[in-house]
């Protein structure tokens, strides 16, 4: 057996702090903020002068005797002063050690000690646990006794009672003994519940014992703070308290994390059905409020649920114990898991809870769980409850709950933990690890156990046999804990066994992922749900939207660049192990429920560690203390000598270092973009901190609002989501209901935050009812509501009033609760696309709003408006850098078009290059019309590209140009139709890095063709363009891409045909200026018309007929169009109209046979090659089988 010591950093020690809380005789008595309304100032302690607290005038201070009131406690001492990574928070620890403050008692009251625990989260995401032993100590301070006597006399005089000697709560120092509560607390990095409780109990027993302990109490406290290390993973450790050995253990790398809170007690209190319901509420991140008169019950249920969430982690407010000053946190409009103590005789109705629509209220004492409406069942809930019931019955616990039952004692065939403990202690004696006094005590204990079977009474009033039975019950409880947790871990493994197949790794590096995290989809939810059993979909569709699942997937994504979270690494390793035995023959949609197969092994593993300690810590020893310190006074906890407890003293003992340390198990979590409220701020009771806390609540609500509305809009984008691999072609009813349910919950929390008047469980419906009552006087005789307000922002008039929709719901929703009616009203408003206008109307009645109206107004108008009013777009024109100054001379405008419509003409403000506007959802963007109104010769600029940003989805579209816009330059165009392409995140940053020369893909087609690849390459490109169009129409409609891109984009039909016609075209222009195909087409048509008028078609193969007439008519109509689209734009329109009307294949031979062609083209030109022209005409003819529909932006202004 190894001997271990903790001589390293605090992170490797068993305990971080030892704390003593109680009454401070120097500052006097001050009633607790949540309990009393008077206090005694310092002068009261001497002159018995008492004054009322400012603002107090009744309440508990005058209803109860001072002996029954709660007073503020203080941290009397804590050791050490601070640790490296976990600074001591005096106010928070004091509040959690004594949530109800100081309690006074007399000899007539029960003075039983109490135990409870708490948890504190630090800013880096780590968590510490506090274990508190509270007992009553006789008051010896004359000042405190005098102050209490004065308060009692004052109370009796105000209550009209004189000299009530002997009544309940009275105090007479001549007759009564006054006791006050004191708390001993041990703060540890891991939840060592049993070991910490035993240490504190033994410490208190040593104080109350008439016999002094073997060593001063400082020796035991110093030992546990500085010399007892954390057990290594997968090992157990024995250390010594004041009266005997204490054993603790720590799970190994492949086991579930440490969880000592007795799940058996939680299941016994609530029952299996209620515990599964509570866990479902926690998984779906509802607001969970625990209610009990016992603080430890609150912690037991809260920590039990928290451990059952593995591999997921609660991401929101987690305060299993909140005192009265923290009750303002119940108004938090965010998910929370909190617990409040039930006051004597208090009922739930007295709580005045602001949020109940999505609240899970757990009345632990009455064994009741009230879940929100429409709570889905946990997958395979019936089978899961049956399996859990079987586990509980094996340990002698009833599955129905409602009682507190201890696990059954060990059978005669089971090894006796007590005897093994004694044998191990004897082995320590043989190894020389025990001192003389301890040896004598040990030998007497062993002799007593053998001689009388445990009949000897210990100092704590228990027989030795009883102590041994408790140890065995702890072993049973530990085995029950791990088996219940294994059942749930097995269920999550079955549900998410292939989750990594649906994780989307779209980012190239961690920085880009963090930058664009909100706009990214990291999990293919649609595909995942499609392979799940139908009975699981209701739960899973909502669970996939929670923060805990998002955080879980985020951890998987960043594991490509950083170490995995310990919980996720453990879960993944378990999945990999199960896959080795999985044949893969079962379909996930129809697989049967499989029970957990590791229950026995997990129980045996923990039993081996608890029955045989692997390491023994250094024993407590005498410290270098001053003479007279450490004297024993029975019944009084001494004032500890601070200098010997402030830091570790050097020892010569050998050490076993903890290689892993707690940092590996609870390492600082990777901080994502989402910001969680820090618990240290939540526990700060200063007015500034409370104001800041609620401001952060509202900011978080706004952020959640943006994310939810963006998600709803993205799902409704249709084909755009398909192209990006972000969903199915149309949103399913299940997914839509899930998103709307989330929106309803968000609105409920928004309206419930700070609401002063509420009736029923729904804050929103309560607000609507009050609004309906306030508007009742403005009704017209016909029942319509008179609304004289004008609709601003150019919005359309309301299609049905808010009150009319309420009445419709009230008429048609008989039997629905308040929450159901509120959700029905939201559904109806969404269907009518007037939810935003309804919410704005509610905002006009400011009397119904209690707090933060501006924030709410901003939330509703900016985020919910997009559901009914439109999508915000931002358009940025990027000129060539060398000529960007020319933008000051133009007056540009844009019109953005997509598959669902266009934005209309939007004028760019003068001297700017961008515009922000809102319009209806345009869907996937395809074209952009860019023009300018100024037609002067100086009004011209060279445009690089135009960028369009969808502010909701985060999508960026790039519309390459690379051409001039203005008269007398280029093709003289004042308007261009640009073709868009979706770019990846960050690509828009490259848009402004180009030099004055357009890159090849942005260059004018006429310029790029000057370096033509040759006739073969041109014909190959032409065949590819035609083939792309053919393949487009042979695909299923939902899989087709953008037709406009195939026609007019890079490598499209227009550019390829332009290359074909430019091949071999002669040019007499100086300096090799641009040659435009449209010049040839115009001249060819003009020569045809002239020859026809003169009858001079003699000698030409060109024959007069309908194709020739249509060619001339189309060219003439295009030239007569009011749009100034330039020569390139006219040729693009010419090709698009020709292919749409099935004429292009007929026009090409006409142009080839035109007499002008021989004079304009060289002998080797493709247009003069009859075989090439015939092949191209045949290819174009194949497109006549398809109905081609052109976008309005392409044919605007042309009536053909």
From TrEMBL:
One MF annotation (Gene Ontology) recorded for this entry: small GTPase binding
Keyword vocabulary terms for this entry: Guanine-nucleotide releasing factor, Membrane, Repeat
Chain ranges of the RUN domain: 734-892, 1044-1195
Domain PLAT: 871-979
One GO cellular component term: membrane
Compartment list: Membrane
Matches recorded under Pfam families: dDENN (PF03455), DENN (PF02141), RUN (PF02759), uDENN (PF03456)
Transmembrane segment boundaries: none
Domain UDENN: 55-563
Entry keyword annotation includes Membrane: yes
InterPro entries assigned to the protein according to its UniProt record, in alphabetical order: cDENN_dom (IPR001194), dDENN_dom (IPR005112), DEN5A/B (IPR047278), DENN_C (IPR043153), PLAT/LH2_dom (IPR001024), PLAT/LH2_dom_sf (IPR036392), PLAT_RAB6IP1 (IPR047277), Run_dom (IPR004012)
Superkingdom per UniProt: Eukaryota
Presence of keyword Membrane: yes
Membership in a protein family: Belongs to the RAB6IP1 family.
Designated name of the protein: DENN domain containing 5B
Source organism: Astatotilapia calliptera
Lineage, top ranks: Eukaryota, Metazoa, Chordata, Craniata, Vertebrata
Encoding gene per record: DENND5B
